[in-house]
Amino acid sequence: MFRPSPLHFALALCVLASPALAQETPIAFSGARLLPINGAEIASGTLLVQGGKILAVGPVDQVSLPAGTTVIDASGKVLMPGLVDTHSHLGGGGAADRSAPIQPDVSVFDAIDVRDAGFQRAQAGGITTANVMPGSGHLMSGQTAYIKFRDKNTIEEWVIRDEAGKPMGGMKMANGTNSRRAAPFPGTRGKSAALVREQYIKAQAYRDKIERAAGDPEKMPERDLGMEALVEVLAGTRIVHHHTHRHDDIITVLRLSKEFGFRVVLHHVSEAWKVTAEIAAAGVPCSLILIDSPGGKLEAVDVGYKAGGMLEKAGALVAFHTDDPITDSRLFFRSAALAVRAGMSRAGALRALTQNAAEMMDLGQRIGSLEVGKDADFILLDGDPLSVYSKVQETWIDGVRVFDRSDPQDRLWAVGGLGAGQSRVLNVCCDRGEEN
Amino acid sequence: MLNTNLKRVLGLALLAFTPSALFAQDIAIHAGELHTVSGTVISNAVVLVQGGKITALGKAGEIQIPEGIARAQAAVVTPGLVDAHTVVGIAGYLNQDGDQDQLERSEALQPELRAIDAYNARERLVSWVRSFGVTTMHTGHGPGAVISGQTMIVKTVGDTVDQAVMVPQAMIAGTLGGESLWGDSKPGTRGKAAAMLRELLVQGQTYSAKREKGEDGFETNLRLEAVADLLQGKTPLLLTCNRHQDIATALRIAREFKLRLVLDGAADAHLLIDQIKAAGVPVVLHPSMRRAQGDAENLSMETAGRLDAAGIPIAIQSGFESYVPKTRVILFEAAIAAAHGMPRDRALRSITLGAAELLGIAERVGSIDVGKDGDFALYDGDPFEYTSHCVGTIIDGKLVSTKER
């Protein structure tokens, strides 16, 4: 949450103009134990940020500071990239309704409540970026949104944009039991796959018509928003995020992905440990959820903590997700730690929470590690990130602090208490005194 | 806390058990750190179990270990964990209609439903929680009805309920607030729920008086038998209530009818610390990681520590889960409390001796003392750390779980 300071008041004047200008004065965090992820740990390092970007990262004695740099003593702290959650339902945004099992035209982007207190909790857990998704009750429940948990007033200011300024996101799909129900929904696995195939064949035909038109408006097919999204999927510019649990359902996703050439990230993947070789051979990334006990639904009877380590050994790209509210965004580190408990490497688990997750959203060049030129998204902890006793002390996005555990309001969201579940007033900056 | 080599050695030590040792009720356990919970932590300690009971404990070297006795060792040994409230064994891991027996929705008041008639001793979640060190569970009818039924206390062993059970009728379980308000049927409101509960208790008073007199023609009524037991203090009333007004109602009704009340869930308990303390009522607190939603939206991960510091008897529960995870594990829930202001020894106490005292079974379990049951949890490091493992569970001197978890 925002804590007004002279710096922030000054920034308020330019904040709407461009996020890139969010933070003009260089800030150096000095003396922290740095975990850059894409590089060796630095026992006592400095992170220098300006204009929302990382300017320098290295051992304290090797980073030179520009004149006017604000230096923050971070000794005794652990500093690492902000966490990236590949699968979250924060903001309460659904997408597709019950009218059809496949709705590629619908987007969660139009439904996210940025005032959801869950986002504050996620900041407290060190999460800076998430793929916010519609649910799994459809074969294709719509477009997802890649967002940063900025303290800004509208979703337009939260969403991550590509170089052309277009909001980024993926396409949510699901198979197995969640998407099965009365017609027009499928009743069996065979029907589920048939409906998906039919849709992709339609999308291929639509794409081919556009290609044949070669820019001639007369020859273009009639606009179809769902088809346009699926053309992006076929082109590989929109990644499919696929809910799937059982080993046979996982293989079905791999088959469809190969058949139509779409890029896919497998989500949940409860039985991934049964088909690690197949997943690794397909080069398909997995985003895992770790649940305290098996069961709760038929597809999750064989879920365990061991999948992360097994997939890592098989050579697959692994990330984790909260699936918030299924697991609590404040405890996202716990997922990685439990994977380590069951055999995953420590470095692999930390990378899974950051860089690997960023890569699963085509954001690996922009976030996920402490590297020069990347976004200044990082967190400060008071101890080892995989210890139950450690807490995120501060969370920064684009060089702006969005969570500060020493702030009583932020602390309330971090630990809970009266009012912690209520949506927040977001009018950041200068009129905070007029809240309520 | 523990280096990898030692971990490996300890792992092998457990695997080296012969099948006959698995069924032995005599065992000597060597602990790098022995957390007795009732007393101090003893380093480099040995506990001796004979005939299923603890017969000696102390520094290694001071305890005479009988020849040929089974042995186990671990870096950290604690009492077997006691889950102060769960539905494991009544609610199964498949989460299909056929294995969910924790809530009967045909009527809002059914104190006659017995937990022992519904417990599946072979349920996979029983062995699951056991593999993290849980040796005793208070389980039975769950939240969701004003009075949902009875609970019982079991050990996490046995092929039948008879082999598992310690206390066949432990408490009567009920709920005030959210989950017990069925909307379209009785009760639809908080006021109605309280009125229905009072009416049942008044009927119970009349019945209880008749039962005491032993008049001719007295007809046994199973429902009111259970209520009479409540009114006579034979069984406590376990009321799940999370909103502060529901907690206040529970305290009020308990006062009116002189009931032995145990507050369950109690998400808003941090708002009523003085009142709960004054009433002398213990709290079986919600899981620390429970989702902050609905009636529990104001819960805090710091409540366990705050109630404990205030001197309120508390235990941390795994609770009821309707989806995934199908059950929580009290070890993990206490760990989060320990990370949020509760001293580690107090957090461990809340899932061992504190829970046993609250359940009235501290004579038998909850701490490592001579004369108590030989129930232990073995860990390769700080039990609360995410990356430590439970490396063995012992019940009545028998090694019942050896999987590294």
How would you summarize what this structure contains?
The complex is a heterodimer of chains A (436) and B (405). Chain A is an alpha/beta fold and 436 residues long.
Helix-residue proportion of chain B? 25-40%
CATH topology of the largest domain in chain B: TIM Barrel
Return the domain count of chain A. 2
* Residue runs with pLDDT of under 50 for 5 or more positions of chain A: 1-21, 427-436
How do the helices and strands follow one another from N- to C-terminus of chain A? Answer: HEEEEEEHEEEHEHHEHEHEHEHHHEEEH
- End-to-end C-alpha gap of chain A: 16 Å
SSE order of chain B in H/E notation?
HHEEEEEHEEHEEHHEHEHEHEHHHEEE
Radius of gyration of chain A: 22 Å
- Largest interface: which pair? A-B, 34 and 42 residues
Low-confidence stretches of chain B: 1-22
Give a written overview of the molecule.
The complex is a heterodimer of chains A (436) and B (405). Chain A is α/β, with parallel strands linked by helices and 436 residues long. Chain A folds into two domains: 6-82 and 370-417 and 426-434, Urease, subunit C, domain 1, CATH 2.30.40; 83-359, Alpha-Beta Barrel (TIM Barrel). Chain A is 26% helix and 20% strand. Chain A starts with 5 loop residues before the first helix and ends in a 21-residue tail after the last helix. The model of chain A is unreliable at 1-21 and 427-436 (pLDDT under 50). Chain B is α/β, with parallel strands linked by helices and 405 residues long. Chain B folds into two domains: 4-79 and 368-401, Urease, subunit C, domain 1 (Roll); 81-359, Metal-dependent hydrolases (TIM Barrel). Chain B has helices at 4-15, 19-22, 124-130, 161-164, 190-213, 222-231, 244-257, 273-279, 303-309, 330-338, 344-349, 353-359, and strands at residues 27-35, 41-50, 53-59, 70-79, 81-86, 134-140, 147-155, 165-167, 172-175, 237-241, 261-265, 283-285, 314-316, 376-379, 390-395, 398-401. In chain B, the strands form two sheets. In chain B, strands 5, 6, 7, 8, 9, 10, 11, 12 and 13 form a nine-stranded mixed β-sheet that branches. A seven-stranded mixed β-sheet of chain B has the order 3-2-1-4-14-15-16. In chain B, helix 5 (190-213) crosses helix 6 and helix 5 packs parallel to helix 7 (244-257). The interface between A and B is large, with 34 and 42 residues.
